[in-house]
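User: I'll paste a sequence; please echo it back and then give the predicted structure.

Assistant: Echoing your sequence first, then the prediction.
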Amino acid sequence: MNKHLAGGVLTSALFLLTGSASAAEPIDLLAATHLALERAPAYAAAEAGQKASEEQRGIGRAALLPTLAATGSMHHFKQRFAYSKPTFLSTSANYNKSSAGISLVQPLFDMKRWSGYQQGKIAADLGELELDLVFGNVVLAGASAYLQTVSAEAALAASRAQEASLRRLAEQSALAFEVGSLTVNETLDAKSRLDLVVATRMQAENDLAQAEANLASLLGSEPVLAVVPFANTFAPLALPSEEVGEWERRAAESSPPVRLAEARLALAEQQARGSAYGHLPTANFIAGVEYDKTTGGSFGMGTRTNNSHVGVQVDLPLFAGGAVSAKAQQDEYLRIKAGREAEESRRQARLNARAAFLAVRTSAAQVVALQAALHSAETAHEAAAAGHEAGLRTIGELLDSEDRLAATRRDLARAKAAHIEARIRLALVCGEFSDATLVAANGLLAVATPVR
């Protein structure tokens, strides 16, 4: 995950969004994630920060290069003199004085400047790593919001289907009670189940509205563009390795937070070296040319002076009130702090990789089990409906089959969303995310927009 990948993501988004920008046409997971990246203020801010950090490389290099400066001045002087004894000298002076010069300074030996150059290079890399981290956060947030919306739509569809079915059953039971073929308890059971499903449907509508608002905020669109449902034939994504230790190792080496913490440690180490170099002497090559001209003076005559010099200047710090030692000690403590933070980042990366790996594996097993459960629930519901029609099943059994069918549909949608999100999270945690990760996840939707 780097600036080249991010640039490719945003470039491919142009094609995807051209054909799916209307509210009537749904966008898939790939296009939604691209749109979130394009419009996320946090990512735009990180890009600006990365460009600013890149300038640190030039700033550090400039400290090692020669500096050339030109100076110039022009003054008008007016003076009056008073002498204690008579003299032939003038008692006033009215003249102009001008000067110009060029100076050159080239560092020959300055370890603190060299350390600053190294710090500039690391700071430039830090900007890139921080951009990668924000990139991953935006990708995960966009994908999560999209999947939550798809899952919420599936849950609402299941509740609405259950409500329509139970409403017919409640009406049928009321008619059956009037003719005396159904007891009052069975009629009340059907009515109470319907009321509960209405409440469930209202909650599902609220959940969908919240999910759509979250997605709209991330995509910067209003109203929310339609989303693509999960594919009915949903095959969980395979993992290249089933060893959790292997994923932990990858995360500890390549996770964006780990690489960022290690870069900060390298910067702290270089800053500590630079502070320690404050005790060393410095040597600079210096050269210059100066020209001075005056039009008059106390003797009434003007002068012209040409000066030039070349040499080496050596400075040896002796005592600065303890500031150099204190700064060196401070930066040493900051280096220790950065080292501990890098160690903690590696530990957290291992934990995150394990959690994401287990979530991928668990959700995959849940999807398979719930797909089988859905098939069984549909078969059981058909049998219960046929049995109730023939008078062999009670209405309570039919209502129970309706509950199981709707609950299984909702659980399956949540498991599908959890599986896709966990797979994206695992790739991000291990520093292995690419456009191919999104393409594979996008293939689990009912309709996938082709990538060009």
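Residues 3-39+110-280+317-442 form a domain with the Outer membrane efflux proteins (OEP) fold (CATH 1.20.1600.10). The chain has a mean pLDDT of 85.
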